[in-house]
Design goal:
The chain has 146 residues and is α+β, with helices and mostly antiparallel strands. The chain has 4 helices and 6 strands, in the order αααββαββββ. The N and C termini lie close together (11 Å).
Length: 146
């Protein structure tokens, strides 16, 4: 089913109430959302482990991508959407179980492109990973159905 414009507009409402499928699947929650900034949390545990027993890097990538995407989406006009065109992540320390905090911040928002960064820290404030992404604003016909 293709989203209608009203559904696009209530994206942030769904995020703020954690009514997002990937958030339910992985277990992260949006705690703070404002234009250009979003904070997500994740209680990382054995359900997120890779074969070596540590937190799978893909889970960190999903959480960082979500934090950055939400921060960027919060800057969009009602008739705009976006897509991520590039994502990079660096891992700094292994995690087994931890309360993680991902803070996404829009560094530069142009009319067509944006650059966003995210830091993921543990409950002791130690840097676990840092990520960046580039997003492209979609307008008009390009934004329909997203």
């Amino acid at each position: 089913m293709t989203p209608e414009p009203a559904q696009q507009r209530d994206f942030l409402a769904r995020v703020k109430t954690n009514d997002v499928a990937i958030a339910r699947l992985i277990g992260f929650e949006a705690k703070e959302v404002e234009p250009g900034r979003a904070v997500l949390t994740l209680a990382a545990g054995p359900q997120h482990a890779n074969p070596m027993g540590t937190l799978h890097g893909g889970v960190l990538c999903d959480v960082a991508d979500a934090a950055m995407g939400i921060a960027f989406a919060a800057t969009l006009a009602p008739d705009e959407s976006f897509t991520t065109v590039e994502l990079k992540i660096n891992f700094f320390r292994p995690v087994w179980t931890a309360q993680l905090r991902a803070e996404g911040k829009v560094v530069r928002r142009g009319s067509l492109m944006g650059y966003i960064e995210c830091e993921i820290t543990d409950e002791q404030g130690r840097l676990v990973a840092k990520s960046s992404s580039t997003c492209m604003v979609l307008k008009g016909e390009d934004a329909k159905g997203r």
